[in-house]
Amino acid sequence: MPGTPPTRFVYLGPEGTFAEQALRTVPAAERGDRTPARSVGEALDAVRAGEADAALVPLENSIGGAVGVTLDELAEGDPLVITREVVLPVEFVLAGRPGVTPADVRSVAAHPQASTQCRGWLRDHLPDATVVDVLSNGAAAAGAASGEYDAAICAPIGAARHRLTVLADKIADHPDAVTRFALVSRPGPPPPPTGDDLTSLAVYIAHDRVGALLGVLMELAVRGVNLTRIESRPTGEALGRYVFFLDCTGHVADVRLGEALRGLRRVCADVRFLGSYPRHRWGTAADRPTPAPAGLSDADYADAAAWLARLRAGELN
Length: 317
Known about the structure:
It is a single chain. Strands 1, 2, 3, 4, 5 and 11 form a 6-stranded mixed β-sheet that branches. The protein has a 5-stranded mixed β-sheet with strand order 8-7-9-6-10. The chain has a 4-stranded antiparallel β-sheet with strand order 13-14-12-15, with helices on both faces. It is built from 11 helices and 15 strands. The chain is elongated. It has 317 residues and is an alpha/beta fold. The mean pLDDT is 88.
């Protein structure tokens, strides 16, 4: 709610998953109420209905790519906006009940994405174990805790929640893998610009126009707006009909991004604004925001606007 700090949070459940771990990095969520949802759609609908103030849902994984169901849900239904991104390292552990050793493990519960990301480790360390697909990392931990399976591949928070012993940590084949989550709320004024922000959009192009997508990209490029991500998803209308999801550097309050949005509004069939929010910062020197190209800073735009106003007023000096 505009002007009111959120206190009721919902996240893609169940408990003990990376989504809960990511949500607990948000200070307001750590102090507030946290409720798991059975699906991304259920989480977002709780926000739309006013049953929750904000929802944390996965956007993309550095290994598996975009989370299509989240993009589809954001493009459809009553509008929602992203107010924050959370980027969480994906650190899988192998966990079992106290007293279980790696030599005892004959069955391993894992979400299919988790077992895929740990395929090499499983091959090298548990070649004879049977991997059983379950619905979530939390369900894997619960299954190991109940004795249904000898061990689970899960998030550290899941092992702790179910009082499991960590048999091996950091077992993912890609140690630098991360998942990007979005904190989503009902529409309201965006967080103030920080100088290092992202803006997310869902863009519908005119399919009967040659070069329509190129026109979209040019509206950004000529204003020095960097495109950090583009994904396409079918609209469901017909084969070949797509909506494009864009992440751009900048904030809706920035002059150059505002100019780009006006341009997109002119050339696109439709544009859905999905939010302006601070970019996740890792705290390294390489993480500093990229300065605007020469001639494309807000000050440059203000100077050009003032110059044009003088021309229109007949002032030529």
